[in-house]
Amino acid sequence: MVENRPVLNFLAHLVLIIGVAIVAFPIYVAFIASTHGPTDFLSGLIPMTPGHNIWHTYGTMLTDGMKSSGMPPLSLQMGNSLIMALTIAIGKIAISIISAYAIVYFKFPGRGIAFWLIFITLMMPVEVRILPTYKVVAELGMLNTYAGLTIPLIASATATFLFRQVFLTIPDELMEAARIDGAGPLKFFWDILLPMSRNNIAALFVILFIYGWNQYLWPLIVTTDTSHYTIVMGIKRMADVTDAQPQWNYIMATAILAMLPPVLVVIFMQKLFVKGLIETEK
Amino acid sequence: MKRTTFNQRALAYLLIAPQMAVTIVFFLWPTGQAIVQSFQQEDAFGLHTNWVGFANYQALFADPSYIQSLEVTVIFTVAVTFSSLIVALLLALAVDRTVKAGPTYTTLLVWPYAVAPAVVGVLWWFLFNPTIGPLPYVLGQMGYNWDHSLHGQDAMILVVIAAAWPQVSYNFLFFVAGLQSIPASLREAAAIDGAGPVKRFFTITLPLLSPTTFFLMVVNLVYAMFNTFPVIHATTQGGPAGSTDILVFKVYEDGFVGLNLGSSAAQSVVLLVIVIALTAVQFGWVERRVQY
């Protein structure tokens, strides 16, 4: 701050408080809605003060789900989301770090081509090639499997580039010293590179966990079997009742539970989250 | 590339094999398929495929619903990009002025980034519900009859708000970082020379922030064009009457629901060209930034 201007300071706080309120408003309304019974939505406006149905709503959704629209229990869907998020995050980090290691520390024919092939994947969001990718997964018999949910999303140019950057900043002398001391490539990777990139791995993990948890289109098309539903895609199936009024209290309870894990990750690991966000967008 | 390297070739191939396998099977092969299919047409029973040259593309650009989808995408993308950038910049400038409370505000403003776009869509859909939602009620008091299932304009505003909401957090973080990297001495010098806050903003802060702004603009364009499928799918489904039918939603609908393979493949290729162009711009910028 350059000079003290009380009016501007007041304005700054005002803007921020309004911003925070706008950000929090939808969540507040959703939470309040989830504490009411289904009849509270039949007439008039969405209630703005808490109801008394909170334990019933969340209890029913977590253990029974919503049978009328073929929804399995949310505990199962959250479990699926967790499996998906963890597999994608760990899988992406694992295959990216070893391929970046190969590209930076080894000399082999075809290295340039490999690098370019990985680079190209950066330009192909799944939305763009959705139908042919679906066909490949179907032909491999991977529909309604955890492998089908995760493996096609596991290749990541961004993560490979990130690790490449990290490795390039590690001084050459380290590797030379390790070699003189008789360490082979695997020992060097395990004992030196991996510990040195620990912070980057943690930051990337936070970003990829959120990415994996929030996937929507892919689980929507590869899972038709309710036992493989993830919570983020399941919420839409609940809201899709054509004739009846949607059961808002259950839908909003699902929304709250669907956003809770990634939001908690961001709040409690904010430093790693910011680091990961800024690193992956370089 | 390192000065010294290992020379166990077999190990190197082994290390890179998983990445290559996934890339080829799930990225390159399907993309190749899309390109090939965009030049083919299936007969009504799916028994024969014929090469038809550019017929799919010609049909696509002669199709009024595709032209409408292009227009809708441009409006949607520009609206999402600019609204989220401006709101984020305003919040970042405000945080930059606060002395002690900055980190608290930051925490309270960044978490929407973690909320899935589909969930965000459902939330705003609920808030804007024409019969029970609080926002249409307030608008109704002001004499505006909100109904996004009937009015295309209302539907567009709904999806723009829902798509921009989580993106504000993202832009905010980058703007805060950008503002912090502007040396305080520059602003102090300008203040001593008599420049007020508004003048300082336009002559010092904004120009020095322009690399961040440009980078964010490209990232937001890519986000609005390609990552907003869940927002549309969870809310308006492209309606009413195609007024929110953005390109990524149309390619899904024509492919999965309409089963029009040739047209869907041609649309994929058009999208691919757009992504490649945007990525090239983004990397061109990175190259330039490296120089200074």
Number of helices, counting only DSSP H or I runs of 4 residues or more of chain A: 14
Low-confidence stretches of chain B: none
The proportion of residues forming helix of chain A, as a percent range, comes to: 55-70%
- What spatial order of strands do you see in the largest sheet of chain B? 1-2
Instruction: Write down the CATH topology of chain A.
Output: MetI-like fold
Shape of chain A: globular
The CATH class of chain B turns out to be Mainly Alpha
Strand content of chain B: under 5%
Low-confidence stretches of chain A: none
Count of the separate structural domains of chain B = 1
| CATH fold call of chain B | MetI-like fold
Largest sheet of chain A: none
Q: Do you know the CATH architecture of chain A?
A: Orthogonal Bundle
Total count of strands of chain A: 0
What do you see in this structure?
Chain A has 282 residues and is mostly helical. In chain A, 69% of the residues lie in helices and 0% in strands. The radius of gyration of chain A is 24 Å and the shape is globular. The two termini of chain A are 28 Å apart. By secondary structure, chain B is mainly α. Chain B has one domain (63-291): MetI-like (MetI-like fold), CATH 1.10.3720. Chain B has a two-stranded antiparallel sheet with strand order 1-2. In chain B, helix 2 (55-62) packs across helix 12 (261-291), helix 3 (64-97) runs parallel beside helix 7 (152-180) and helix 9 (197-226) runs antiparallel to helix 12 (261-291). The longest helix of chain B has 34 residues, at 64-97. The radius of gyration of chain B is 24 Å and the shape is globular. Chain B starts with 8 loop residues before the first helix and ends with a helix. The relative contact order of chain B is 0.13. The mean pLDDT of chain B is 85. Classes of the chains: A mainly alpha (282), B mainly alpha (292). The interface between A and B is large, with 103 and 103 residues.
